[in-house]
Amino acid sequence: MVLKKKINLLHLNSYFQGTDLHRLQIQHLEEKEVLNQSLFVPISYSEQLKRNPFENNPSIHVVIEACFGLFARLFWPLKMIQIWKRFQIHYRNQTFDLLHAHTLFVNGLIAFLHFKKTGTPYIVTIRSADISTFLKRIPFMKFIAAPILENATTIILLSSSFWDNDLQNTLLKRTIRQIENKIKIIPNGINEFWYNNLETVEKEKNNHFKVLYVGELSKNKRVQTIIKACQKLDENGVNVICDIVGEGPERTYLEQIDVSFKINFLGKVIDKHALLKMYRDADVLIVPSRRETFGLVFAEAISQGTPVIYSKGQGFDGQFKDGEVGFPVESGNIDDISNKLLQVNQNHIALNKQVLKVGRRFSWTEITNQLLDAYTIIISLDS
User: Angle of helix 334-346 relative to helix 348-357, nearest 10 degrees?
Assistant: First the structure.
């Protein structure tokens, strides 16, 4: 579709300051030169105001504003009232073709209220916290989610597992029927560094099996199950080496687990070149988190030709067919993890070849093309 004019797009993103992910998304969308982008970031009075990353780009209009205090943060309806008031003040004289709410709650509710007031169409992205923090813990929130989702033009999920394993079991049946044809699966993109250094060479079979973990050393990540699963492999004759990359409150406990194989605690690795070498040297990346929004480390590992093992029903599950680039596991199930590690070890050459074929799946070029398709379809329907 050829656009006659640029789309005036407003991003609503209360989590913008928490991760570099959203900055990269806006930056790569800007390179397409078909959008006029604005960004509204409501934060609490106690949250530190970070530097606007687009301050040297006047074409991206950014509002980062403290809207609510501690009491309102604890009393969600008051928080929403205060954010909505500040939003109306900033945009009372502006019109947009489309709003993109980057979470279901807070951002999605503002988009819905604006839609009811002005008729402006909107997209909602549902993230893991929307499901685990709100829908699953506070059943009443499904009644708030219903009008937001039913009136959204498009609903973006990072993974099909969110729909199959979570939303269909938590939302109202009426809502499920109304939104199932609005769902688009668009994962997160990763830093272009990984694609500028894409691995293209097939790996050779080693006389050892190197297992890599990258992430926080916390209970949620269940690193102890990796160690115990590797111990089972070692006891069954597999020459295991386990590299643990990361820091966290569990490190001391993990270092005290008695093992008979080689395990290296490497601490936090910030240098991308060093991490790239670790991905390439590894035979598999495993992160069996209990909860995971998406898991950018899986996409990074895949860009370097490394098979992955991920948690069943969490963010990365559903991106590929089982066995295509690795395997899903039951988080916390040592036997299941051990068996899947063994499968990777036994089929490593074939898996590596398959992983190399999909190395660019999570590039921002691919992701922004999918987002732009979603935006332009909505504008064409609304025009």
Answer: 80
What does the pLDDT read at residue 100? 98
What per-residue confidence (pLDDT) applies to 382?
61
pLDDT tens, residue by residue, 232-247: 999 999 999 999 999 9
Report the side by side order of strands in the sheet with 308-311. 262-267, 240-245, 209-214, 284-287, 308-311, 326-329
| Distance separating alpha carbons of residues 222 and 298, to the nearest angstrom | 16
Task: Extract the tokens encoding 246.
Answer: 């990361």
Q: What is the pLDDT of residue 383?
A: 54
* DSSP one-letter string for 179-210: HTTTEEE----B-THHHHT---SPPPPPSSEE
The C-alpha angle with vertex 166 and arms to 354 and 42, in degrees rounded to 5, equals: 100
Judging by beta carbons within 10 Å of its beta carbon (0-12, 13-18, 19+), is residue 306 exposed, middle or buried? buried
pLDDT given for residue 263 in this prediction? 96
Ordered structural domains, the chain, with CATH: 7-189+363-382 (3.40.50.2000), 193-357 (3.40.50.2000)
Q: Would you place residue 153 in the very low, low, confident or very high pLDDT band (cuts 50, 70, 90)? A: very high
What's the whole-model pTM score?
A: 0.85
Three-class SS state of 132: helix
Estimate the share of the chain in helix, then strand, then coil, as percent rounded to the nearest 5: 45, 20, 35
- Angle 107-118/76-91 helices, nearest 10 degrees? 50
